[in-house]
Design goal:
- The protein is mainly α.
- Helix content is 55%, strand content 0%.
- It contains 5 helices and no strands.
- Helix 2 packs across helix 4.
């Protein structure tokens, strides 16, 4: 996926599940543009949205871990 995300673990889970931002947006019901803004940190991620993303990934990881912020420089 092009672009950057402040959530490195989320990106890794997406990679492991073979999902890109478009497929994740379809599974969550979030628009592609909304999901990208949230992944970049441009708009806040609400709890309900985080739960939808985690469920769409079929992930059991705690939200605090999945959505731990990382700087762009660490990636």
């Amino acid at each position: 996926m092009r672009g950057t995300s402040i959530y490195a673990r989320l990106m890794m889970e997406m990679y492991l599940k073979g999902m890109d931002c478009r497929s994740l947006s379809e599974k969550t019901g979030l628009t592609y543009a909304t999901l990208r803004r949230k992944m970049r940190g441009s708009t806040p991620l609400r709890l309900e949205e985080a739960l939808r993303i985690r469920n769409a990934l079929g992930c059991q990881m705690p939200l605090e871990t999945l959505f731990e912020r990382t700087s762009v420089h660490e990636q």
